[in-house]
Design brief:
alpha/beta; Rossmann fold; eight-stranded mixed beta sheet; five-stranded antiparallel beta sheet; 8 helices
């Protein structure tokens, strides 16, 4: 099977993306629905990431597969946003395209004021290294390096500070994430939950503006999933914007906002607001999860 990514903006043989229609339903935490984009509670905040009429088309065995179709999305600084939707809806493709890991077919992505569509591969690589952090379902680390060396490597490559400072930052992150005692271990000598927390430390080593997470709890048991989720919430509280793909209602319930994607298009948004530091966080999470579940049922989940 031959799979190619279409980079040309000529859609004469595929889908006409020349017209953008925003028909999503935005729901606030009270359950009220409105067809207007003005209901987005983050409109007054600084926008750090924006997709404008974003399209992604693949050619598979001579047939066009329009995975993303005129997606319009804004992420405000400090937000924790989850992307949900059925399998094959384009969630991971959106994450990879909006972060510049994959080429877009048409449209624009504005990251921290810069248009990714006009950047070279080298410029995109540097941008991802310095201003973005990534954590995936599969815990990619270099097998020949110990945990500590894997974490500090992006810091050394970025050269934003001395190696001594990178080492100090790595130790602080590992201590905060509860994996400092694993510094000298090989990646095969730790549990899945420990390895994912180490991957999060690596993703945060350069203090990224946006942390991209693709099913970060998907390969973990429930206990390890909650541990990783708690660390993502803490990273968000510390200042990192988080954009996460997840299938889990329990995980998404900790987000400020949930975006529902189907057939490559955003169908609706649910604003839950920031998770408070209330004494009974468990009860609050249960309420948010119920609200999210009801909304997902309305969306056809």
């Amino acid at each position: 099977m031959e799979i190619n990514s279409v980079k040309s903006t000529d859609h004469s043989k595929t889908t006409d993306h020349s017209k953008s229609t925003d028909h999503r339903k935005t729901t606030d935490h009270s359950g009220a629905a409105n067809q207007s984009r003005s209901t987005n509670p983050n409109k007054a905040k600084n926008i750090c990431l924006e997709a404008i009429d974003l399209c992604k088309t693949y050619i598979v065995d001579g047939y066009s597969n329009n995975v993303l179709q005129n997606v319009n999305l804004k992420i405000a600084e400090g937000e924790f946003v989850s992307i949900m939707g059925p399998s094959g809806s384009g969630k991971s493709t959106l994450l990879y395209t909006i972060s510049g890991m994959d080429d877009m077919t048409a449209g624009k992505v504005i990251f921290d004021g810069e248009d990714l569509s006009g950047m070279s591969a080298k410029e995109l690589t540097k941008l991802r290294l310095i201003k973005m952090g990534f954590i995936f379902q599969q815990m990619y680390m270099m097998k020949k390096l110990c945990i500590m060396d894997n974490i500090v490597l992006p810091g050394y490559q970025a050269k934003l500070c001395s190696r001594e400072e990178v080492n100090k930052n790595a130790e602080e992150l590992m201590r905060r994430l509860g994996v400092i005692e694993l510094a000298d271990r090989q990646i095969t000598e730790v549990s899945g939950g420990q390895l994912q927390r180490a991957c999060l430390a690596r993703a945060l080593i350069n203090s990224p503006k946006v942390l991209f997470a693709d099913e970060p709890t998907g390969a973990l048991n429930s206990k390890a999933s909650m541990e990783v989720l708690n660390e993502l919430v803490k990273a968000n509280e510390a200042g990192s914007t988080v954009l996460m793909v997840t299938h889990s209602e329990k995980v998404a319930a900790s987000s400020d906002r949930i975006i529902y994607l189907m057939d490559g298009d955003i169908q609706g948004e649910l604003a839950l607001g920031k998770l408070s530091n209330a004494a009974d966080t468990r009860e609050e999470l249960a309420k948010r999860e119920r609200k999210l579940r009801n909304w997902l049922e309305e969306m056809g989940w």
